[in-house]
Design a protein that fits this description.
By secondary structure, the chain is of the alpha+beta class. It is built from 18 helices and 34 strands. The strands form eight sheets. The chain has a 15-stranded antiparallel sheet that branches.
C-alpha cells in the first residue's frame, strides 16, 4: 500500500539500452552456452527410480499427456491421456498404460540412475545402467503433432519389449466408492457401467486399441432438463466418440495383440505411439483415419520435427518468466511457478479446457472413504468430468500475464459452443432473452443430472435440486470479464467480434431481463445467492460488482466496435445497478456479501469479489482502506486449493500477507506424489490445478498490476526477494526487468511508447 510515484523513465531508458546490448550478446553467443540457461535450475532431477505411479513425472504437448515412471528392478511405464477422451458417461478416461522392458535391465537395484525433466526442450531423459551397458532413454510428446516418441540408445546391443496394459477389460458396474468419479450419475436410477476397450487383432507388427462410445448420456441429460427439442437439432458429442492409439517401432515384431518384441538386439530403438480421438460412424472409419494420421506423420523429416518441437518449447519459455532469488522460500516459489506453467502447457492446448481436478495427469492409488482405504484406477478423479466455473477459471486468469493466449482458447471455445443451449434454456425456463450458465456443467453446457435432480415431478423447469448452485450463475459475468481482459491484452479484433461481443450480449441481456426493478428503478437481484455460501440473498456482491466491472469496460470499447444501441443499453443497465452492498463492523464500513443474507452454507468470501476477480478496489484506487478492512474481517482464510486470499492480498498491496501465503502455497504439495508440483487434493483432486493457478496469479499480482493503460510495478513485492521477470500487459505490451536489493535496476518495456504508463509503488 502507500503512495504511488511515477518511475524515472531516464533510468528506464538507460537500463533498456543496456538490456538490448546484453540481448544482442546472448543472441550471438554459441548454442553451447545454453548450459547456463536460468530455466535449468527448475528442471526436476531424480537419482532413483520410483515405487509406483505416485512417483510419476508429467510430460505432454497440450493435448496428449504422459505420467511416466521407472520401477526399480522393473520397467519404464507411463499412462497416456488426452484432453478429449470422454466416455459414454462423460468421464475423462485414460487411453491406457504402456510398459517398456529393456533386456538386459538397466534399472536393477543399485545401478546408476538419473531421470531429468528438461523444461527448455519439453522432454524427459533417463540415464541408467553401468558403463558400456548404460542406456539413455528420451521421451517426448511432439509439440506440433499427435505422436509420442520413446527413444533408447546404448553403446551395447540390447533388446526391448513393449506391452499395452488396460484395466478396462470387460463391462463392469462402478463400485459405490468410485461413483464420485462419475459425478452427475451418483444418484442415477440406472447402474453406471464402464465399457471395455477393444484391442484390435491381427495387426502387423503394431498394437492398436480403442474405446468407443456405443451409448451416451447426452440425450437423456437434455430431456431431463426440458431441452428435449434440441436433441434432434444438435449432434450428440459423446455417441460414437472413439479414442485410442497405435504403437509401433522399427525392428519390433508382434508377440500378441497387446505386445511387441525386438527381432534382435540393437544399439538403438524408437517406439512411436499415435493417439487419436474422432467421432466416426463405425470403428473401421476410426481405424482408417488412424492409418491416415500415421502416414502423414511418417512422411515428415523426423529430425526437423524434433527441431520444431524444441523450438516450440523454447519460444514458450521465452514468452514470460518470474525467477526469484534471495530470501526464504524464493527457490520453492520460483520452481512452483515454472512447473505449474509447464503443466498448463502440457494439458492446455487440446479440444477442451483444463480439468481443475487433475488436468490430464491423474493416476491410480488409494484413498480413504468412510474410514476404509479403497483402491482406485487412473480414470478416477473426485468431482468427475463436469466443469465448475469457480474452479475452472483459476488456471486461466494468470495466462494473461504469462502471454499464454493460445492456452486460453479451449476455455472460450467450450462456453461459446454452449451458447445456443444457454439461450434456449433461458427462453424455455423464463420466457425472456439472453442466456446463463449454471455453475456446474457438462462440457456441452447443461446442468449435471444429480444437481438438476432426477425426479422432476411437481418442480418448475430450471429449478435445480442442488441449492449450492441453484442460482449460482455469475460465472457468465466473470467469463465476460476474462474475455474483456483477453481483448485488452491482445487487441484481437476478430476475437472481439466473434467471441467477446456475442458472450457479452447474451450475459448482459439475461441480467437486464431476468430481474425486476425496485421503486427507484434499480435492479433488485432476488431471488439470488452469493456464490455457494449464502443461499437466500438480496443484491449479492458478485453479480453487482461483476456487472459494474464489465459494463464499464464494454462502454470503453472503441466507438466503431459497438453500436449506438449497445452503448445505450449497457449505459442504462449500468445506471440501474444497485450500489455495492456494505455493512458496519466496529463502527466502520466494509464490503458485504449481499444487501441481505442469512445462513452460511459454504466457505467463500463473496464480498471480496469486488477485489478479485472484478478489481473495483486495489492499489491506487479509491477506498483502499475499506477494502483492506474487508479483507481483515473475512470469515474464511486460507491459501490452498481454490482459495484466492493470496491474490486478493496482493491486489490490496498487503505485501507481507501475500508473501506468506504464496510461500506456503508453493510447498503445499500432495504428500504421496513425488513430483514437486502435484498439488492437492485440497478440495478437489490431484494434481489440483486451482492451487497451482492461484500460485501463478498471486505471484504475478504481487509483481505487476494493470488498469487500462496503467502498469503498476512492485505493488506488493517483498524487498528481500530479488527477481528477474518478463510479463505481459494490455495493448500487446511486455514488461521485462530486474529488481535487486530493493531497487529496480533494469526495465525494458515493449513497445517503448508504453514506458510512459509505468507506475511504481512507493516501497519505502
Amino acid at each position: 500500500m502507500g503512495n504511488v510515484k511515477v518511475f524515472d523513465h531516464r533510468v528506464a531508458g538507460t537500463v533498456a539500452r543496456a538490456a538490448m546490448i546484453c540481448l544482442a550478446l546472448c543472441i550471438c553467443a554459441p548454442a553451447a552456452q545454453r548450459a547456463t540457461d536460468p530455466l535449468d535450475q527448475y528442471n526436476v532431477v531424480w537419482t532413483s527410480p520410483s515405487e509406483d505411479s505416485s512417483g510419476s513425472m508429467p510430460i505432454g504437448n497440450g493435448d496428449i499427456g504422459l505420467n511416466l515412471w521407472v520401477e526399480e528392478d522393473g520397467d519404464l511405464l507411463f499412462y497416456i491421456s488426452k484432453t478429449d477422451s470422454w466416455s459414454e458417461n462423460a468421464r475423462l478416461l485414460k487411453l491406457g498404460r504402456v510398459r517398456i522392458r529393456l533386456i538386459p535391465n538397466p534399472f536393477v537395484k543399485g545401478a546408476k540412475f538419473e531421470q531429468t525433466l528438461r523444461l527448455r526442450t519439453g522432454e524427459i531423459v533417463i540415464r541408467a545402467g553401468e558403463e558400456a551397458r548404460a542406456v539413455v532413454l528420451r521421451l517426448w510428446v511432439d509439440a506440433n503433432r499427435p505422436v509420442i516418441r520413446a527413444e533408447a540408445d546404448s553403446r551395447s546391443p540390447f533388446g526391448v519389449e513393449v506391452a499395452l496394459e488396460s484395466w478396462r477389460l470387460q463391462r463392469r458396474q462402478l463400485e459405490p466408492h468410485e461413483l464420485h468419479s462419475a459425478y452427475g450419475l451418483v444418484e442415477s436410477p440406472h447402474p453406471v457401467f464402464v465399457e471395455p476397450d477393444v484391442v484390435v487383432g491381427a495387426q502387423q507388427n503394431r498394437i492398436v486399441w480403442y474405446h468407443r462410445n456405443e451409448r451416451s448420456i447426452w440425450a437423456e441429460n437434455l430431456r431431463l432438463q426440458a431441452l428435449g427439442d434440441l436433441v434432434g437439432t444438435m449432434k450428440d458429442p459423446l455417441l460414437h466418440r472413439t479414442f485410442g492409439a497405435a504403437i509401433k517401432g522399427h525392428g519390433l515384431l508382434r508377440v500378441s495383440d497387446s505386445a511387441l518384441r525386438s527381432a534382435k538386439p540393437a544399439t538403438r530403438f524408437q517406439i512411436d505411439i499415435y493417439p487419436l480421438t474422432r467421432q466416426t460412424d463405425t470403428a473401421e472409419q476410426w481405424l482408417k483415419q488412424l492409418d491416415g494420421q500415421i502416414a502423414d506423420i511418417e512422411r515428415l523429416d523426423e529430425a526437423q520435427t524434433r527441431v520444431a518441437h524444441h523450438r516450440w518449447w523454447s519460444e514458450f519459455w521465452d514468452r514470460s518468466w518470474i525467477r526469484i532469488s534471495g530470501g526464504k522460500d524464493a527457490r520453492a516459489v520460483s520452481r512452483g511457478y515454472a512447473l505449474q506453467r509447464f503443466i498448463n502447457a502440457c494439458g492446455g492446448r487440446g479440444a477442451f479446457p483444463i480439468k481443475f481436478n487433475g488436468s490430464i495427469f491423474t493416476v491410480d492409488g488409494r484413498r480413504k472413504v468412510d474410514r476404509t482405504v479403497t483402491e482406485y484406477d487412473a480414470d478416477y478423479r473426485s468431482w468427475g468430468g463436469p466443469y465448475w466455473w469457480q474452479n475452472t477459471r483459476l488456471p486461466y486468469w494468470p495466462m494473461l500475464s504469462c502471454g499464454d493466449f493460445d492456452l486460453m482458447q479451449p476455455l472460450f471455445r467450450m462456453y461459446l459452443d454452449a451458447l445456443p443451449i444457454a439461450k434456449a434454456r433461458t427462453r424455455i425456463y423464463y420466457n425472456h432473452g439472453g442466456g446463463f450458465y449454471p455453475e456446474t456443467i457438462y462440457f456441452w453446457g447443461t446442468w449435471v443430472n444429480d444437481n438438476y435432480g432426477w425426479n422432476r415431478e411437481g418442480k418448475p423447469h430450471g429449478l435445480s435440486d442442488n441449492r449450492y448452485i441453484r442460482r449460482e450463475w455469475q460465472g457468465g459475468i466473470e467469463l465476460t470479464a476474462l474475455m474483456l481482459d483477453h481483448y485488452a491484452y491482445t487487441q484481437d479484433k476478430e476475437f472481439l467480434k466473434t467471441a467477446l461481443l456475442p458472450m457479452a450480449e447474451t450475459i448482459t441481456a439475461f441480467y437486464d431481463q431476468h430481474y425486476k426493478r425496485d421503486d427507484s428503478r434499480r435492479i433488485r437481484f432476488e431471488p439470488a445467492q452469493a456464490l455457494e455460501t449464502w443461499w437466500d440473498c438480496v443484491n449479492p456482491m458478485p453479480e453487482i460488482a461483476g456487472l459494474k466491472s464489465i459494463l464499464g469496460k464494454l462502454l470503453s470499447l472503441p466507438e466503431n466496435a459497438i453500436s449506438e444501441n449497445q452503448r445505450n443499453k449497457w449505459q442504462r443497465l449500468l445506471d440501474e445497478l444497485p450500489p455495492l452492498p456494505t455493512r458496519e463492523v466496529d463502527g466502520e464500513t466494509i464490503l458485504s456479501p449481499a444487501q441481505t443474507y442469512a445462513t452460511r452454507r459454504n466457505s467463500e468470501n463473496p464480498e471480496l469479489y469486488a477485489v478479485f476477480p472484478y478489481r473495483l478496489y486495489g492499489v491506487g484506487k479509491p477506498d483502499l482502506d475499506m477494502a483492506c478492512r474487508t479483507f481483515a474481517h473475512r470469515l474464511f482464510k486460507g491459501n490452498n486449493g481454490w482459495r484466492q486470499d493470496d491474490t486478493q492480498a496482493a491486489l490490496l498491496g498487503l505485501t507481507d500477507q501475500a508473501r506468506q501465503y504464496v510461500a506456503g502455497r508453493a510447498v503445499n504439495k500432495h504428500k504421496e506424489s513425488r513430483f514437486p508440483a502435484f498439488w492437492g487434493p485440497n478440495f478437489d483432486w490431484i494434481p489440483d490445478q486451482d492451487h497451482g493457478g492461484n500460485l501463478l496469479m498471486a505471484l504475478q499480482t504481487m509483481l505487476m498490476q494493470t488498469e487500462d493503460k496503467k502498469i503498476i510495478l512492485l505493488p506488493a513485492w517483498p524487498k528481500q526477494w530479488n527477481v528477474e521477470f518478463k510479463l505481459h500487459a494490455p495493448y500487446n505490451t511486455t514488461v521485462e526487468g530486474v529488481y535487486r536489493a530493493g531497487e529496480l535496476v533494469s526495465l525494458k518495456v515493449t513497445p517503448q511508447s508504453r514506458a510512459k504508463n509505468i507506475v511504481r509503488t512507493n516501497q519505502e
